[in-house]
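Quick question: what would this complex look like in 3D?
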Amino acid sequence: MFAYIVRRLFLMLVTLFGISVIIFVLLRVVPGNIVDILFDAAGFVDPADKANLERELGLSQPIVIQYLHWIGGLLHGDLGYSYVSEKPALEEILPRIPITARLAGLALLFSASIGIPLGVISAVHQGSKLDYALRVVSLSGLSLPSFWLGLLILMASVSLFGTMPIFNPNPKTWLEALTIYAVPAMAVGFRSAALTMRITRSSMLEILRQDYIRTARAKGASEASVNYHHALKNAVLPVITVIGIEAAFLIGGLIVTETVFNIPGIARFLVEALRWRDYPIVQNLVMFIAVVVVVVNFIVDMLYAAIDPRIRFGD
Amino acid sequence: MRSVQALAVAVLSVLTISDVSRAAEPKSGGIFRIYHRDSPGSASIHEGATYSMNIPFMPIFNNLVIFDQHIAQNSADTIRPELAESWAWSGDNKTLTFKLRKDVKWHDGKPFTAADVKCTFDMLMGKSQQKFRQNPRKSWYDQVDEVTTNGDYEASFKLKRPQPALLSLLASGYSPVYPCHVSPAEMRTKPVGTGPFKFVEFKANESIKLTKNPDYFKKGLPYLDGIEFTIIPNRSTAILGFVSGKFDMTFPTEVSIPLLKDVKSQDPKAVCVVEPNNVSTNIIINSSAPPFDNLDIRRALALALDRKAFIQIMFEGQGDIGGTMEPAPDGLWAMPKDMLEQIPGYGPDIEKNRDEARKLMQKAGYGPDKHLQIKVSTRNIAVYRDPAIILIDQIKSIYIDAELDVVDTAQWFPKIARKDYSLGLNLTGNAVDEPDQSFYENYACGSERNYTNYCNKDIEKLFDQQSEETNLDKRKKLVWEIDKKLQEDVARPIIFHARTGTCWKPYVKNVTIMSNSSYNGYRYEDVWLDK
């Protein structure tokens, strides 16, 4: 198990190094930089002023020097300064992380707590009206874009209650605090819940046909014990994979949800930073997201190994 | 019975009158909540070229003079003193002297003096050691030779030649006075002003907060305790926020005509106004390369435009047709209608214009069997894309098949600068309804915003002539002549001038939306909430 963990950790570092190079190069391959955008917004260009600003921001240095400067700073905890706000990048990024983390955590919780039980129910009642109804719900979850669902929720909220759950940094009640995160989390988590439900259902159906399930029933185990103890434990492996992948994909979904619900998290901030070609923010944010994805994958791998020992021995 | 009725009427009348008088008496307090359409690049108005900066940060500052904040049409007659107590032109109209107020303090407690005026305008003219990161309106002060001070409370602008427009330029929301003792870098992040509101914080992509300046030199003002701008780039969310009462006002001039209907249907009590914003939608033409190096093709293009159709499709008829200067009645310098209609392409008979255009195209070698293939480039923003699509449809009628080339904002200006386009769909905003600003910025040879490098020395002489003219009637005639020539030269064909909406809750008092500029009306010192 120790060798397995060391191997995985080494792979993590190699992956992160690769990502840092890709992010850095891709950002500079995309045409236009912050100076172009600032001067474009002014509809004005004085080549001397432009050159001065490029020099001031370090954009006129060779790309390798710029990369080494960034990585060197990163290793010392210096993320540089935002080109737009002129504040330390860390100061801009840090307060936004808990907001997105809460939203993503709630969305994943919603996805797992709705998707897994409904998937089990759907599998156990295969072919029943309930099964068909749940399958329709899951299909609609996969089909509805989260931005559309988000807008629909906002419109319904305004029409029915005369208010809307958009972000408020200082909620007055715990209910408001819950609402401003829970409603967007549901909007973004609905698709993941639908996917989790479908995977759980198909995995459960496969397991429920196994010999050992028949044996458990023959030995007199209760239906609940068969379904939730014997079957679900074995059916949950692909579900963990899906939830792990969804955690990574969630950032994409959160960009839209944070925009619709006006949540000042890192996903929306990333898009804005990209629009301004604010390299220090984009580079560090993408690196942060990459670290999260790599770590989540590492945890998923560890969970695999813990749940199914064949994986660690076979690896 | 009659006497009872009369008494009831009398009581009701008294109640109503007292209610009205109560409503008319300004109340202090409350936070004015507005949503903001995007996150401004910085807080320094002098370094910006978008009203996304003026709206939240104008309440922090004062100008020497300002357009009256409650007269919708900005003009020389509506200029009021602000940091200046008075102003006077010298006999030769080459020196403009301001007597300054003595009771003004910066938000950090330091006194405001004439040195601050000199610092600000020296920096704008590029004459000081400290430099702005960007200085987009440097050309406004091209005719200013120097700014001098006489003691702490008098400042003079000495001009190279008479320029009556200078006072209007100084009255714009783009012309605040900055403190000498605060660096340009600090002004981008933590601006210090003398205005009715102090800067509290600017969280990029989140919010901008201002608080009441209790030491404001206008006693009793401002009425509001503060102003909060919540940045909501998603227009649907923002409008729903306004309807649900999260905001007291929409972002000024940002509600489109179709959206205005939605707002009124969901919130019938909302007060909504539609005003022109002195932004023209126009075509930029690369006349330095084929096919538009051919004057006939450029003229054919101008003749093919059905301006009314653009306005009908995009604004349900609520837009205006004109030349470079904003159309009447809101625009001060608009050509008379009969003069406008004499310009090729502006006549009411569209089919006749297009017949003429087709003849010009045939003369240039194109026709029903040989269409000209081009690209129409524009920025990837709806207000640019939508008219570009209509333009493509209209020029089909003169044998031009165009493809839409959507360009990322970051690439738009570099692309135009390297002349990598044939036709472009462009928007031009004017901060002040003033020919000097519009002509020199957009059409003078070599000027920075003259994207097409249009250069006509004869017209440029007329620019100077009108700029020096102190007789208003004579100046107007010169401006009309210039505008007509610019259109006839197909310098930058103007398609239309847009109108846009602003809504606020009925309890918001003293808001005036300007009708010939979107940059000048946001001091908000006497706005109050009747709650």
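Answer marked as accepted. The interface with chain B takes residues 31-33, 36-46, 49, 53, 56, 82, 84-87, 92, 151, 154-155, 157-158, 162-164, 166, 169, 259-262, 264, 268-269, 272, 275-277 of chain A (CB under 8 Å).
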